Amino acid sequence: MILAIETSSPHHSICLARVSAPDDVIAASSWEGLGRSGRLLLELDALRPHLPGVRLIAIGTGPGSFSGIRAAISAAKGLRAVLGTPLIGICSADAVAADLARVSRLGVFADAKRKELYVTEYALGQRLRGPTTIPSEGLEDYLARLTFAVSAEPIPGIPNRATPSATRLAQLAAASWRAHPGRHEDPEPIYLRGPTPTPLTRNP
């Protein structure tokens, strides 16, 4: 089985499916709210009877909530240490694009804070560019090149909502693992800039 965890947006989800047939979902759940890593642990605990059968763990790596993704990766690494299970990261925006694969030019956006947006661009489900960041003030010009734009959270100028799901993540991860078995590095959150500089303080 494959265990998929998606926590990059305000809509968290987990999914347990068969690696050989990832459309065959054994268990799935979702919940709202960033920063609720405690709920993730409760959801994983509910799957405890199935965990010995897990052969692959997939994590949505964003871009999106850095803390949410970090919590999922930490939980997954703990499971890997116990189960000896491979761990794979999948761009969360790819899961959204897979649901909208008929869109000729799709932009998947997320709030990057600091007056910036994350954006990943697709054509018929295939990634063209990104993830990258753009200034929020440049959104209108960027939208002019797209046929459809979505985000998982409210962003002024983007009325359409689409959320990456653990179920779709499981399907993408299973396909990636079959294509490249054993060739995946440990997942890291997609974080497209350095940390906020800490202001220097001087002693009086």
Task: Provide an overview of this structure.
- The protein has 204 residues and is an alpha/beta fold.
- The chain has helices spanning 37-46, 66-83, 92-99, 139-143, 166-179, and strands at 2-6, 11-17, 25-32, 56-60, 87-90, 106-113, 116-123, 126-135, 148-151.
- It folds into two domains: 2-92 and 164-179, ATPase, nucleotide binding domain (Nucleotidyltransferase, domain 5, 2-Layer Sandwich), CATH 3.30.420.40; 93-151, Nucleotidyltransferase, domain 5.
- The chain is 27% helix and 29% strand.
- A hairpin with a 7-residue loop joins strand 2 (11-17) and strand 3.
- Helix 3 (92-99) crosses helix 5 (166-179).
- The model is unreliable at 196-204 (pLDDT under 50).
Task: Sum this structure up briefly.
The protein has 204 residues and is of the alpha/beta class.
Keywords:
204 residues, alpha/beta, Nucleotidyltransferase, domain 5, 2 domains, five-stranded mixed β-sheet, four-stranded mixed β-sheet, 29% strand, globular
The CATH homologous superfamily name of the largest domain equals: ATPase, nucleotide binding domain
CATH class of the largest domain: Alpha Beta
Alpha-beta content class:
alpha/beta
At CATH level 3, the topology of the largest domain is Nucleotidyltransferase, domain 5
Order of helices and strands: EEEHEHEHEEEHEH
- If classified by CATH, what would the architecture of the largest domain be? 2-Layer Sandwich
| Rg from Cα | 18 Å
Overall number of domains: 2
Helix content: 25-40%
What kind of sheet is the major sheet?
A: 5 strands, mixed
Global shape: globular
Mean pLDDT: 90
Termini separation:
61 Å
